[in-house]
């Protein structure tokens, strides 16, 4: 018996190795450096399946694993594989979305509550372009196009009959948060010819509380099936070629049977297309025409190279850091999803207008992800802005969060405004800026219709600024609304973004009006507020409608639940105090007179992180993304270098547990990429704060063919401090740089001289505060 088990283990290991080697021997070495399972554990919720940059199809395994918890991206390392579905989101919190249009191969297992067990918890393999997983009887592989996928099943059981379940009701669930669960509403699936099927699925719910939406699908096998049966809940009907249901949460689907003797070495292929328009469009969306699995893998990988990886050339001896850079770069290109031609709600005249969906959410991505896309992929950046404008034009409001072709949820402000300002100052092409400004003004001036949200019943969270009436009346958000501090700070940033466009696109009066309104965050600054164990005063504080500061439960070091019903969302009051990078000049002045303001600034920043103080800031939430770089605002750049290095080395690691929180659609990864470049963007402005690079030399080829070269001379674990800097061959004395200087039409060069001793090398002007306005 022992000998048999050992032999079986060796056989299974050999089997997995053969599958993986097919794609480790033939693809570009760049793909060795990308870990698709990075951030899949410990709350990262990364999607490790197969897609294209911003692809609509995101194909992955959906797992049921009681020990793992809710699998927001479908994936869990253990448990049962309940389906391989065509759509997912990546790195999201809240609850899962999609997990629809599923297949599952099987042999003799009972079809009821079917779930495939992996050979072991480490049997999943993935490289860009192809995913492989082995079960005791079947090896599974799949790859992806833009709106379709190709599956390869290799059956190695002795059973003459092999089967594939097509589950039309399959979708991801979040048992831990049933109030945001998705629900199957209705659907249908029927055979097409002798080797295929078509159908649709309608789903409701999810984190954005979406109304029912429908996805259509079309599947084909490379062999005719010998029999097909249907199931509805627990009842199976043989020789049945169609099934439908209008009963919520009822399970329906077809089971296809094939004669293994007809298969070549047990291999069965299936291609599946998806569409939000029709089954005919789903069929036309199938990109593979010849069941050529290897060719589709190669095309997927070539697309990734062309759009992303070929733009970067790295010279560094630390392979771990190189891998970390490329892995995080990959994670920045999964969301949003390009669905041009796939919006069922737009008029016929607009059906081919640029459309992206799955903004999950702009609250997470506006700080660094979208600015990164605008640098390295301005065509995509432009399309994303065009999509936001088109959504406004045809649906009424640009989204802050969006999935399943519907806006929702708004966590704080209308941060699409900041995306538009960032694209504007970076001169992205093909954008109607007059229409963009209209969308921004709608956010700033027109309160959205009320839609009930049980977690925040005070105002709609679907779109727009739900607390706008307070903003216009008081100049801040009172505690009559939830998330009053968050909204006040973000509405201020949003109105700053309006002022950026108004200066050129509108009138001087509009420019001055929105610039003045961007200073409204100051209305929540209580100069007398104190915090336990901190020897300075002055913090943001919730304020009542009568002008009094709420003090009954106030603590600048606590946001209590930090959730929808609290004054601050995913950040403490002390964290939100830093969330005005467009006007740091005013913030510094609030810390004291010129003689001691800088010292207090340093002390306050030091207190935020364990490097010098305690763990106040949460590096896993976006409100504290920029804070580590802010020593630059007082020309103490070396402190930013130290803190960024500390955070990277402490909280961001290689591997499946490498992220300190949700990836948030790639927001976390964009922070890593910018940090490793030695830069940080102030979104909505042309300013980049300068830290120091993690890599010896990196060359970025911009879309226009110009290059940006970042070189770090003498870089080592100890030599991290900037001793001097040259930009475009000239000595540079500022710890910030303008976008056009390095990312403009001619590209740019940054050459750092690094050493092991802190150095105040910057003697030039401090970073700008373009939103500065004295109230």
Structure overview:
- The N terminus is likely disordered.
- The chain has two domains: 240 residues, Beta-galactosidase, Chain A, domain 5 (Distorted Sandwich); 382 residues, Up-down Bundle (Glycosyl hydrolase family fold).
- It is 26% helix and 21% strand.
- It is α+β, with helices and mostly antiparallel strands and 775 residues long.
- β25 and β26 form a beta hairpin.
- The strands form seven sheets. A nine-stranded antiparallel beta sheet has the order 5-6-7-8-17-12-11-10-15.
- It is built from 18 helices and 32 strands.
- α8 runs parallel beside α11.
Brief synopsis:
The protein has 18 helices and 32 strands.
Defining key terms:
775 residues, alpha+beta, Beta-galactosidase, Chain A, domain 5, eight-stranded antiparallel beta sheet, disordered N terminus, 6-hairpin_glycosidase_sf, Glyco_hydro_92, signal, GH-type_carb-bd
